[in-house]
Specification:
By secondary structure, the chain is α+β, with helices and mostly antiparallel strands. The chain is built from 9 helices and 14 strands. Helices cover about 30% and strands about 25% of the residues. The longest helix has 23 residues, at about 245-265.
């Protein structure tokens, strides 16, 4: 997740500093629910959608490779919603060079109010960017170091590390994801999630192998935060879809057992971690603090209420231990 997170906000910043002279030809769907997701390419390993207005407190504290939402405040003020995808990069053998220049590493589609003409004027006096014409039509700007390529319209931004106007097969979001993310500030899913999930659980000392078909995650305002003065206004939601209802029932039993064991450990009086840190034990206890719920083939876990800093620690921990 770290490689994905390290992209999102530098990309958004580039949208403001280096806009395109020609609007992207990609059209937005009529349904707001499919607005940006329908523009993402298929084949990614992790997909994320965010309502920037609702999720702004989270985006301001999450650290993305040394770059935070506060650094991109001007851009976030102009973005309504955004969707992004990260692609798994093949392992590089010793002595070999990195991924070929034509390999797509990420793609972002954002909607908002973008000052095309003003930004284009700024671009004309910014070194390190060149204008390119896409074989698929239209023009885009690309940084000379090849890190970011941007195509911008008045209300749509397409960003990638290669030509963002290049044709590709578009992703079809997993079944039930649109329903899952309703009311969420941000939400996403992972393809082939069993590996990262099981790697994280093993790191926390939980000997469980989850046969996950789908994995959804999201952040929503906690029911206890009806008042804005709540110090812990967020709730994380994780939904795992198993191959069958029988698998989900077995998974529920495993999670319930793990929850009981961790509660016993908490009752034994383990020393809590300092306020600005989070141990694997702390993360596991949070994960199983609430009773998991089964709905057919799916198991839902809820963590909360949480503050923004704790969520940032959890996301950072998952990015490290899920590899």
């Amino acid at each position: 997740m770290k490689s994905f997170n390290s992209i999102v906000f530098p990309v958004l910043l580039a949208v403001l500093l280096a806009s395109c002279a020609t609007a992207p030809r990609a059209s937005l769907p009529r349904s707001d629910e499919d607005r940006e997701l329908s523009l993402l390419p298929a084949g990614g390993s992790l997909y994320l959608w965010a309502d920037t207005a609702q999720s702004r407190p989270l985006l301001d504290v999450l650290d993305f490779g040394g770059f935070s939402g506060r650094d991109a405040a001007m851009v976030l003020d102009r973005t309504g919603t955004a969707a992004a995808v990260a692609f798994a990069q093949p392992a590089i053998e010793a002595g070999q060079e990195g991924s070929p220049e034509h390999d797509r590493r990420f793609f972002l589609a954002a909607t908002g109010r973008y000052p095309r003409h003003r930004a284009n004027f700024s671009f004309a006096f910014t070194r390190g960017w060149r204008r390119h014409r896409s074989p698929d039509g239209g023009t885009f700007w690309r940084s000379q170091n090849g890190v970011i390529a941007v195509a911008l319209g008045s209300n749509l931004a397409l960003v990638s590390n290669i030509d963002p106007l290049e044709g590709f097969e578009r992703v079809v979001p997993p079944r039930y994801f649109t329903e899952f993310r309703r009311g969420m500030a941000l939400a996403g899913w992972m393809y082939s999630p069993s590996g990262p999930i099981n790697g994280f659980l093993q790191s926390t000392g939980i000997p469980i192998q989850i046969p996950a078909e789908d994995f959804f995650f999201g952040a929503v305002r906690s029911p206890v935060s009806a008042l804005d003065t709540s110090p812990a206004p967020w709730e994380l939601v994780f939904r795992i879809r198993a191959p069958s209802e029988i698998h989900a029932r077995s998974l529920l039993a495993l999670f319930s057992t793990a929850r009981f064991l961790f509660q016993m450990g908490a009752a034994a009086g383990d020393e809590p971690s300092p306020a600005d840190t989070l141990s694997l034990q702390d993360a596991a206890m949070m994960l199983f603090a609430n009773v998991p719920q089964q709905d057919g083939e799916s198991i839902t876990l809820r963590i909360g209420p949480l503050d923004e800093n704790t969520i940032a620690l959890l996301f950072g921990m998952f990015s490290v231990y899920s590899r």
